[in-house]
Amino acid sequence: MKQTILGAGGAIGTELAKSLPAYTNEIRLVSRNPKKINPSDELFSADLSVKEQVEKAIEGSEIVYLTVGIDYNTKLWQKLWVPLVKNVIDACQKHNCKLVFFDNVYAIGGDNVNHITEDSPISPTSKKGEVRAEVDKLILSAIEKNKINAIIARAPDFFSEFKDRSLLMNLIYDNLAKGKKAQWFCNAKVVHTTGYAPDLAKGTAMLGNTPDAYNQIWNLPTDPQKITGEQWINLFAQEMNKSNQYQVLPGWGMKALGLFVPILKEMYEMRYQYDRDYYFDSNKFIRKFNYNPTDNKTAVKQTVDKLKK
């Protein structure tokens, strides 16, 4: 049973490839420059913005995981995400593949992030959120019209030793490692759930290989503990034997510095995830699979330990 990962080079794609051998020894890794994770992996180089290459990449697959990460730029998201997902849906329909979409929660905005469940309304309050809402609606519509069997597997921001796409690691770990103060956005005293990439990827594999999980939205497994930005900083500071001092960049500061620092310009519209409680509830998954997510303290320790090697 061939299972294919579109966007196999990132943190989630890599961890997902580590999890799939529990279900199959036919794993195809697709990206511009794929690299083997398991000895038997099949590598397939493709530009996923090209419809014909998407079709070739998934041909012969039973399950397709879409874990692509597009650079954190609103204009790029607006240009690339919707055509990509349309192409993947069409290709899955043509080749009769199941689809598992690794999603974020940007489609949920405002105070709806106070407690995010699978029933939280699609309510974007940012341009990037509007893009993700459109993508989600495309997949949900394809499910409703019986075009494909699919899962939307949602995750909050996440971290692991792959630091390049983890804001938590950039704000806390990188600064502490340089002997600087950790940083946070808006308010470090409010709850901010952050997922652990290995758990999220393992959960994605479990969902993909569970027939009755399809045609639903699932929140991937995270530690149910409610933890604040300040507590995240404390966990990393303890593991790294560093000072837990930190500085908070307020929303207006993000906007001002965004004139000079591109990532802050992109983050300004996402400040609603940092200026109020942002709690991601994965109880549906935990109950279904009787799964115990890695606790936050252990996840931080494992991540720091891996970076010491």
From TrEMBL:
This is NAD-dependent dehydratase. It comes from the Bacteria. Residues 5-219 form the NAD-dependent epimerase/dehydratase domain. InterPro entries: Epimerase_deHydtase, Lipid_A_modif_metabolic_enz, NAD(P)-bd_dom_sf.
